[in-house]
Amino acid sequence: MIQLLPRKTWLIIPLGLMLALLSTSCDDNSFGTVRYDDIGPFDTTGVDRVTAPNGLVIYFHQQGSGEVVTENQAVNIRYTGRTTDSEIFDSSYRNEVDMPTVLTLRNMIPGFMQGLAGYNEVIDGQNVRMHAAREGSRRTLVIPPSLAYGSSSTHQLRSDTLVFDIDFISIIGQD
């Protein structure tokens, strides 16, 4: 004699299948598997850039259209950090998942924070915030040692210029 599954089980199976299908659907917010070593640097050839008075270089691959970020906010980003000889030292892809990472800007090295939240420049005697990123921006930051880990620290990258490729997804909120 064949025994039928309870009615609740029949409801759970289709719901589970629907959830599985939804989780594999393709859209801008889906997360896939990414090999850490396969993440190549953004191409900066012919890309608009600015060099701040403090030596920070910002390449503007894509201007976002969302809100402008401030240094007191947490952000959702994808990023890869390299030394100038292209050695990866950190990445949001380090677990081989293409999932954004949440970072609080004021807890980051100064050059990273300034590369997204902008930097101050005196124009006509007034302090002006320059080049703050909007949600949806894509940038490459070239950060001199003085805005990274600095020569006085004991960090292994203290004397290195750092290069970060960043996809700025969204602002999470104030921290």
Q: Structural class given helices, strands, pairing?
A: alpha+beta
Gyration radius, rounded? 21 Å
Number of domains: 1
State the low-pLDDT regions, or none: 21-30
Coarse morphology:
globular
The topology string of helices and strands comes to: HEEEEEHEEEE
Which descriptors would you attach to this protein?
alpha+beta, 9 strands, two-stranded antiparallel sheet, 14% helix, 175 residues, seven-stranded antiparallel beta sheet, single chain, globular, Chitinase A, domain 3
In short:
The chain is of the alpha+beta class and 175 residues long. The protein has helices at 7-23, 110-117; strands at 49-51, 57-62, 73-83, 88-91, 101-104, 119-123, 126-130, 138-143, 162-174.
Could you explain the architecture of this structure?
The protein has 175 residues and is of the alpha+beta class. Helix content is 14%, strand content 33%. Strand 1 (49-51) and strand 2 form a beta hairpin. The radius of gyration is 21 Å and the shape is globular.
SSE map:
Layout: H1 7-23, E1 49-51, E2 57-62, E3 73-83, E4 88-91, E5 101-104, H2 110-117, E6 119-123, E7 126-130, E8 138-143, E9 162-174
Antiparallel strand pairs: 1-2, 2-8, 3-4, 3-5, 3-9, 6-7, 8-9
